[in-house]
Amino acid sequence: MSWRQVAATVAILCGALFVTVGTAAAQKDLRPAPLTPVTVQTLPAHKQAARPLPTFDPQKATNAYLARVSGEARKNSDSYFEGGYVLILVDGLCAVAVAALLLWSGFSARMRSVAQRITRMRFWQVPIYVLMFVVATTVLTFPLNVYEDFFREHAYGLSNQNFAQWFQDFAIAFGVQLVVSVIALTIIYSVIRATPRRWWAWGTVVTVILFGCFAMAAPVFVSPLFNHYYPLAESPIKERILSLAKANGIPVDNVYEFDASKQSKRISANVSGLFGTTRISLNDNLMNRSSPREIVAVLGHEMGHYVLSHAFIGITWFGLVILVAFLFLNWGFRALVDVFGGNWDVRNIDDPAGLPVFYALIGIFFVLATPVTNTISRTLEAQADIFGLNAARQPDGFATATLKLGEYRKLDPTPLEEFVFYDHPSGRTRIFGAMRWKAWHLNDPDIKAGPVSPQ
Ligand SMILES: [Zn+2]
Q1: CA–CA separation, 128 vs 109, rounded Å?
Q2: Which residues contact 126 (CB under 8 A, 6 or more apart)?
Q3: CB of 411 within 8 A of CB of 69?
Q4: Distance between CA atoms of 267 and 284, rounded to whole angstroms?
Q5: Per-residue pLDDT tens digits for 31-49
Q6: Which of 32, 180, 328, 395 is most buried, by the most CB atoms less than 10 A from its CB?
Q7: Element holding 269 (H helix, E strand)
Q8: What was the pLDDT predicted at 268?
Q9: What's the gap in Å between 302 CA and the centre of ligand 1?
Q10: CA of 260 to the centre of ligand 1 (A)
Q11: Could you tell me how far CA 288 lies from the centroid of its own chain?
């Protein structure tokens, strides 16, 4: 897995919500909605009249919100996001091409020979080989990386970094990838040597444990390498976030902010970590450029990830996907090496020189599994959306925050597109969910007191 795939998986599983900032929101309608208690109807159920359907039409309200992003802005976001569909395939093909080059040129076998010359112990040959392999793949995929992460982001006006700043982040990510790959692959190859026939089963267990450790360590050791994290300044909005957290049984005493504006204009918040390292963080873009309604709506969603145990559910799903992936690798490796092993000087599955075969196969697997991994993530995200609406009671704040995604995530895809390519529900789905929630809460005093409908 490339560092970007690892980062993306971690981000998805930790429930990161990336939202792009549009224009600065007006601050005046941002005072918290009054906390008026809802009057409870006391008539016995059989005497209650059926509740009349509100006149508010959620479909029309959704269309009205979506119409706020139109013309160039809509075209840009559609084209940015649709380009991403192609890049999934390009990344997969690039992995295959890099692996083919390393294998057929004999470079992979030569890297193994170097490792064998340095040490006779098979255990230590693996980290030496992996070190060279990560450097080689990083160099070979660098042009594609620069295009995808730097030039393309700039072309769509999404990046705040110059090349030196971008390259510094890239170098840090490379360092993290190197350390994580060396440790993880050394352990996995030990498992392969210990149980060459059943390595895929034990390998899954080991990978899930390693992933859990990484998820725990990331907020403490990895995220601060890229951004500065600090407690959110004392303010009414912080109090509101903390009371929302406490009301939902989330044991946090602090909320963190981080300086994401140094990288991009996207607003984001996330719940990251596991066990003792769980924390709620929101970025400075969200803080500075969104209304309190939007902030509370987004944080309600993030708290949903925590309360609904999405970290554990996500890791469980991740384990199942990895199990299938390893079975595919086990079958694919043996099938390919039977035919080409002679050309590559690779014979056995425990030979580190066969790592490029795994690299290519995992690339192909994750391209093919895109609808599955996205559906797992999107389903959890949809649950967090519903939780956030119920907890924060800010359907309009959630709708306008969702619109801010509109700069980099196509707002209104076809259902098939959403099924295959969306790791979060689309803008239309999310806003419709918020408007449906609003339609059925219009008689509640706090919702009545909220912003006028967009119709
Ligand atoms: Zn989320």
Answers
A1: 13
A2: 115, 185, 186, 189, 190, 352
A3: yes
A4: 8
A5: 344 444 344 445 555 555 4
A6: 395
A7: strand 266-272
A8: 87
A9: 6
A10: 17
A11: 22
* CA 38 centroid distance within chain: 37
211 CA distance to ligand 1 centroid (A)?
19
β-bridge mates for residue 17, sequence order: 269
CB neighbourhood size of 198 (10 A):
12
How much helix, strand and coil, in percent to the nearest 5, is found in the chain?
A: 70, 5, 25
What is the DSSP-derived secondary structure letter of residue 219?
A: I
C-alpha 165/C-alpha 174 separation (Å) is 14
Say which DSSP state 156 is in.
T
38: CA distance to ligand 1 center in Å?
Answer: 28
Q: Which amino acid is at 29?
A: D
Partners of 283 in the beta sheet?
Answer: 258
Say how many CA atoms lie within 13 Å of 29 toward its Cβ: 13
Say how many Å lie between the CA of residue 391 and the centre of ligand 1. Answer: 14
Measured between alpha carbons, how far is 231 from 238 in angstroms, rounded to an integer? 10
* Paired strand residues for 269: 17, 282
C-beta separation of 56 from 453 below 8 A: yes
pTM to 2 decimal places: 0.85
> Residue 51 — pLDDT band, cuts 50, 70, 90?
low
Strand partners, 282: 257, 269
Q: Tell me how many degrees the CA angle 132-329-191 measures, rounded to the nearest 5.
A: 70
CB 409 within 8 A of CB 324: no
R_g of the chain, CA atoms, integer Å: 24
Taking alpha carbons only, the member of 4, 24, 13, 5 closest to residue 265 is 24
Beta partners for residue 281, in sequence order: 256, 270
Give the ranges where 254-309 is alpha helix by DSSP (H).
Answer: 284-289, 292-307
Report which of 417, 369, 367 is spatially closest to residue 94, judged by C-alpha positions. Answer: 367
Task: Give the DSSP H/E element, type plus range, for residue 202.
Answer: helix 199-217
